[in-house]
Amino acid sequence: MTDELTAEPEKGFVFATTGESYTILARRAARSLRAVMPRAAIDLFTDQAVDDVVFDQIHGLAHNGHRPKMEALRRSRFARTIYLDADVMVLTDISEVFDLLDGYDLAAALGGNRSQQMVPPDDGLPRAFPVVNSGVIAARSSPRLAAFLTE
């Protein structure tokens, strides 16, 4: 890892789920993360009653919406957060993603071809403009990011 994660870490990972099936997936994903980054801080935001030692903290969701990831990013206790979708499998140390936040408030992987995404064809954006894959998002806590996530 780039630097040591402490008991009250500045950097950490969050998962966010609604429903039992996604929560089961997040537990599996967190275990894959823990296997390759055993000292990582990992939190879960969920609408489920969960007691699992793979998570350092479990937070109840305030809003049961379709996209709990925005609430998880907004409420993250970390100054630098990597949000991961419940269906990821982490196969190697990904701590260098935190380094992207030295220069940016937000970083995300690019999605695939726009024609394969859930984007209306008449959205006015050129086909060459890629969409963001929101399954992996790195965020640095800042007033500007908080306003963006709230919006």
Beta strand %: 15-25%
> Averaged pLDDT, please?
87
Tell me the CATH superfamily: Spore Coat Polysaccharide Biosynthesis Protein SpsA, Chain A
Distance between the termini: 33 Å
Order of helices and strands: EHEEHEEEH
Radius of gyration using CA atoms only: 16 Å
Helical proportion? 10-25%
Under CATH, the topology can be stated as Spore Coat Polysaccharide Biosynthesis Protein SpsA, Chain A
Q: So what's the CATH class?
A: Alpha Beta
Organism: Sinisalibacter lacisalsi
Protein name: Nucleotide-diphospho-sugar transferase domain-containing protein
InterPro entries: Nucleotide-diphossugar_trans
Written account of the structure:
This is Nucleotide-diphospho-sugar transferase domain-containing protein. There is one protein chain. With 151 residues, the chain is an alpha/beta fold. It has three helices and six strands; from the N terminus they run βαββαβββα. The protein has a six-stranded mixed sheet, with helices on both faces. α2 runs antiparallel to α3. The radius of gyration is 16 Å and the shape is globular. The protein starts with 10 loop residues before the first strand and ends with a helix.
